[in-house]
Design brief:
7 helices, 77% helix, globular
Length: 128
């Protein structure tokens, strides 16, 4: 039962995220970066919403220019969501556990930290 609850929570959060994304994509609604508002320095994830909007428009090059983190996220999010759906249907925790085990590997963490650092430097240099 705990596994089903975890899958339902993950799926619900993705649904909320998609709804917020479409709200941002199809209305003048805008969420400013609180880090940049307070410090004046762009955060590592600044430009990520715009990057997803570019991906939504199939403009991958502009998305990467906005934030390089969009690429691993656009690949990882559907895989994570699929794992949650499979576990919900099967009533197990096997897929999510495998996904989380993969994400916790040191080379994946180091790669994501390097991408995060590169993204932050790029954002600062280009004042995104």
């Amino acid at each position: 039962m705990l596994f089903k609850r975890q899958s339902i929570i993950i799926i619900s959060l993705y649904v909320i995220g998609v709804l917020v994304f479409f709200l941002i994509a199809h209305t003048p609604f805008y969420l400013p970066c609180m880090f940049k508002t307070i410090t004046g320095i762009p955060c590592p994830t600044c430009g990520l919403t715009r990057a997803f909007l570019y991906i939504y428009q199939l403009n991958i090059i502009s998305a990467v220019k906005m934030n390089v983190l969009a690429v691993p996220l656009i690949v990882g999010i559907p895989i994570h969501l699929l794992c949650a759906f499979v576990d919900l249907i099967k009533g197990s925790n096997k897929m999510l556990s495998s996904f989380h085990y993969f994400i916790a590997k040191s080379w994946v963490i180091v790669t994501m930290l390097v991408l995060l650092s590169v993204s932050w430097l790029y954002n600062i240099c280009n004042n995104i």
